[in-house]
Amino acid sequence: MEKENDIVVFGKYANPVDANIIKGVLESNGITAGVMEDDYSNVMLMSPVRVMVMRRDLERAREVLESAPEVNDAQ
Fold this sequence. Notes:
Layout: E1 7-13, H1 16-28, E2 33-36, H2 41-44, E3 49-54, H3 58-66, H4 69-74
Antiparallel strand pairs: 1-3, 2-3
């Protein structure tokens, strides 16, 4: 059963820098976000870095990211 307070994956990024930029954009728009890395993601460079948000914020987070031209231009 899905709950609005569940933490879900917003997106997967190639490195922690990109993930933290996205996290910063979301947080500057009032959306609580976190970055999750596997312990070996920096060593192996194979595991994506995930940005996490609460399910209730997922749609708003997508809208925020779509409307951020500086983020869209960087992708």
